[in-house]
Amino acid sequence: MINKEQLNSNIPEHVAIIMDGNGRWAKKKGFFRAVGHENGTKAVREAVESSAEIGVKYLTLYAFSTENWNRPKLEVETLMKLLVSSLKKEIKTLQKNNIKLNAIGNLESLPKKAQVELLEVIEKTKSNDRMTLTLALSYGSREELIKTIEEISIKVKNGVISPHLINETVINEHLYTKNLPDVDLLIRTSGEQRISNFLLWQIAYAELYFTEVLWPDFKKSDLFEAIYNYQKRERRFGKTSEQLS
Ligand code: FPP
């Protein structure tokens, strides 16, 4: 078990998590999938609080993908209800910990109730500055890139941007993540080793960390273990080891 004292000062600025394994966790225990999601929200709270505690500035959680709309209607409804109830309940935790809430994705496709609750918590926490918690909701990276290309194309057509001046900064400014830095560490739980259409552009130089732990079982020490592992890696950004030292 890794504890806080074993970490050095090189804390990743932006941690993103693919929270996977709620369904399998429930199945293993003989529960309905909904129970897995409910317990997943407890793991969300622990991950948020422990990230803030060690000085992570940006935490981005993949809470609902564009593809998740294809799940059984009842499960989608459960997830949306959990989102609304968690937002109502956790506003206090966010305020207490000075955390700003942010959301990325096709938010208009969420049920009205979820949109209203989300916007309210975003508004109430907008001045908090210890950490930004971003929920990816109805998010898909390809959809985000299509939207970005469309917006830039319109600007080119209208003469607002010259095609020769399109660079990484221009693209970044049109993504849902325009206010976030690139991801430093991407964690996926439950043993799957895939990206599943999450932040494809933003993880270009991220360190990837996969763990067998199912999301509802992901505790503070598991997060610290991921960061401990990250701290042992050498991020070269295309350079040689010698150039870095
Ligand atoms: C993946 O497990 C998890 C999800 C699709 C949803 C993540 C949602 C939560 C953790 C709870 C709600 C979140 C917030 C922010 C209130 P899975 O169902 O794909 O698990 P499986 O692969 O084992 O079936």
In short:
This protein is of the alpha/beta class.
Give an overview in words.
It is a single chain. By secondary structure, the protein is an alpha/beta fold. It is 43% helix and 15% strand. The protein has helices at residues 22-28, 33-54, 73-96, 112-124, 141-157, 168-174, 220-231, 241-244; strands at residues 14-18, 58-65, 99-104, 131-139, 185-188, 207-210. Helix 1 packs across helix 2 (33-54), helix 2 packs parallel to helix 3 (73-96) and helix 3 (73-96) runs parallel beside helix 4. The mean pLDDT is 97. Farnesyl diphosphate binds at residues 19-24, 37, 40-41, 44, 61, 63, 68, 79, 82-83, 86, 135, 190, 215.
Oligomer: single chain
Query: Which ranges are low-confidence, i.e. pLDDT below 50, for 5 or more consecutive residues?
Result: none
| Ligands, deduplicated | farnesyl diphosphate
What class, by secondary structure content? alpha/beta
What general form does the structure show?
Answer: globular
Mean pLDDT: 97
Main sheet specs: 6 strands, parallel
Distance between the termini: 31 Å
How many helices does DSSP assign?
8
Helix content: 40-55%
- Kindly state the number of beta strands: 6
Helices and strands, in order, run as: EHHEHEHEHHEEHH
Strand percentage: 5-15%
Q: How much is the radius of gyration in Å? A: 19 Å
Side-by-side strand order of the widest sheet: 3-4-2-1-5-6
